[in-house]
Amino acid sequence: MIHLPFTRTPRAGDVNRGDVRIPDGPPPRSAVVVVHGFKGFKDWGFFPWVAEALVGAGYAVVSFNFSRNGIGSDPGRFTELDRFGANTLSLEQEELRSVVAETLDGDLLPQRPAAVALLGHSRGGGQAILAAGQEERVGALVTWAAVSYFDRWTEETKAEWRADGRMWVRNQRTGEDMPVDVALLEDFEANRDRLDVTATAARIQAPWLILHGSEDMSVWPGEAATLARANAVARLQFIVGAGHTFEATHPFQGPTLQLEQAMDLTVAHLHRHLEP
Fold it and tell me: What pLDDT score was predicted for residue 249?
């Protein structure tokens, strides 16, 4: 396997740090862009394993950090909490669509691929849905534990958020309280229609596999059913006994049975619709 890091600057002061993984031998015909979620990053837990499994299945893989996900040059620690606080959904979508376009055009790969798929987890699944709904060249979509909506705050929380200008969310893994500026709420409210995940789901033309753990306590499994109802051709599969991360942890301790099942279903879906 060939592993090539890359950086891109979507705007002044912001950096996407990413990785391209390519099978040895002739360049593959198809690529997969992997999208992390809220409080996630490209090197979290199962993501490197997922990327290597996709390479083993014959695909080029592009994974990256959103520029304001809080991870800087130290790949495993949140060292940029002010940048994390300044993130917005629109900035993430802009960056994802740019990475997808650069992958489709061959700018991030040795040669231009014939097809590109998206694989998104949690909030990254919602972002992948939005991108697939806008980019007709996306050849396949897989979402893991994807959100069906971004507006996940009570009216009381919103009022306090506006009054204080910032709220804090606990990272259960690290124990850190992480800031989220009111700019994220203002961006969502100003772009509510464009950031409507379920409405966008209805417009997706690419073959779509929805995977969700039956025991997910972070994103209710009913959200997967909502997405499936919105799109007549989407296929929904629940992973029995799986939580939000398919029982995988960070640091990664190896694949679980639930994670392996999700990966097997993902590869089968990609093979059905994309040529490696």
Answer: 96
Q: Domain coordinates of the chain in residue numbers? A: 2-151+196-273
* Rounded CA separation 213/239 (Å): 5
Task: Quote the pTM value.
Answer: 0.98
Neighbours of 96 (CB within 10 A): 24
Q: Give the span between the Cα atoms of 172 and 187, in whole angstroms.
A: 26
- Report the alpha-carbon distance of residue 157 to residue 180 in Å, rounded: 12
Helices (runs of H) and strands (runs of E) counted in the chain: 9, 10
Strands 166-170 and 177-181: antiparallel
SS3 call for 217: coil
State the Cα–Cα distance between residues 141 and 81, nearest whole angstrom. 31
Say if residue 251 is preceded by a cis peptide, omega within 30 of 0: yes
- Region 119-138: mean pLDDT is 97
Split at pLDDT 50, 70, 90, the class of 276 is confident
Whether the pLDDT of residue 73 is over 90: the answer is no
In the CATH hierarchy, which top-level class contains the domain 2-151+196-273? alpha beta
Would you place residue 75 in the very low, low, confident or very high pLDDT band (cuts 50, 70, 90)? confident
Sign of CA dihedral 141, 145, 148, 149: negative
Structure-token pair, residue 233: 């051709």
**Alpha-carbon span 167 to 7, nearest angstrom:** 30
Cα separation values, 106 from 27, 99, 111, 113, Å: 11, 10, 5, 6
Cα torsion angle, 270, 272, 275, 276, sign:
positive
For 186, how many CA atoms within 13 A lie in the half-sphere containing its CB? 11
What pLDDT score does 173 carry?
Answer: 87
183-218 pLDDT, tens digit per residue, is 999 999 999 999 999 999 999 999 999 999 999 999
